[in-house]
Amino acid sequence: MPQPGLKPCRKIFFGNDSIRPCEQIRWMTSSKRVQDRSKNKRVHDLEIVTEKHKMVMKILHLFEILKSEPENIIPLRNLDQHRRQINLPKPHKISDFLRKSPKLFELYKDTRGVVWCGMTEKAEDLVKEEEELIEKNGEKAAEYVTRMLMMSADKRLALDKIAHFRRDFGLPIDFRKYWVHNYPENFRVVQPFKPHDDSEYLELVTWRPDWAVTELERTVLPIKEGLSFDEHEPGWLSLAFPLKFPSSYKKMYRYSGKIEHFQKRQYLSPYADASGLQAGSLEFDKRAVAVMHELLSFTLEKRLVTDYLTHFRREFTMPQKLMRLLLKHLGIFYVSERGKRFSVFLNEAYDGSELIKKDPLVVWREKVLRFVGHRGKNKKKIGSFEDFADEENNEALLGSDCEEEDQLQIEPLENDRLSCLEDDDSEMEIEEVCRAYND
């Protein structure tokens, strides 16, 4: 009988006492890939969230590039070297992308005919607002970074790896230079511990018992009057993870017994010493689920790029095949495969495509996304520096009269494009994202 999860490989050979070929069937294991997942398990709402995130990240990258320039302007041709950072590969034109957001970016030419890019007044106001929100978020971000250090095996993490979480935690762009030194009671920057290691590390200074409590514990076991976590010691937990399966997933009843057994199994707290756990054991895997649940709970949007999680497998004592574990527990996590990098979501944090609890920085990003859209039919030529002073109150300077800047005519999209998202492997267009957001 065929075994589940196996596929036949037929091998023909000739026996010694017969001229007829005999057929031997050998069963081979088939690897699980995210792309091979049934479409019934895809969550359309979270796929939309992925596209929104990718779009707003492009805008934030451009904001940061312009902020780093002396006068917050840059020649358009110089933006080409930032394609990878902006995630806008060829043959897409950066000028076309900028023209789709005239309320955020404006283009104009100098006397030599060089096209420059700058931010509108509205964009500058948004950037200032973000800086204020990041500053207010500093204490909470410091707590989450400290708790990451508390979960790590060596109680220290490479700054280069923490940098992957910068936007997810709401850290400032120069956090390695200034921000990490603002909380000496929590952590400190130390030099490399290995030869030929040029990386700097962030090391835990003070262990906080009240922070060694998982977000799930804080939700399920609220602090009663007169009690606190000041003397809490992390150990074994028996808390069930909140589950939320795709509405189109009809096979849950087949695995209800295994799910119930998993939920009842005890596991070690992410803040406890995991050196005694055997890799590959049930307890080891469930603790890894708890670690990923905790890390996702720290993030602003309750989502992370899966590559960032795999970078911390050794530090957080997690299995090598982390993706398989994420896919296995689809009631806790959802993995979106749209784009070049996969994203993992914490299911319980979302109601459809909306976060249940929104951080002020998330609300700010949604505000930015409202200003992203196509420019309409009225086009204006790119103005010169002399014209710019007279037209700075306009929403944007659009169009182009030079050969290298082709005009872009944006056609309206059909209303049913979003409903076909799960059948489309290409990235969504910018207008499509905005329509989904406004709806």
TrEMBL record:
Its organism's taxonomic lineage begins at:
Eukaryota, Viridiplantae, Streptophyta, Embryophyta, Tracheophyta
Q: Which residues form the PORR domain?
A: 41-374
- The answer, when asked if Nucleus is one of the entry's keywords, is no
> Any idea what this protein is called?
Ubiquitin carboxyl-terminal hydrolase family protein
Signal peptide limits: none
Superkingdom, natural source? Eukaryota
A Pfam family annotated for this chain is: PORR
Q: Name one GO molecular function term.
A: RNA binding
Its source organism is: Striga hermonthica
Q: Keyword set for this entry?
A: Hydrolase
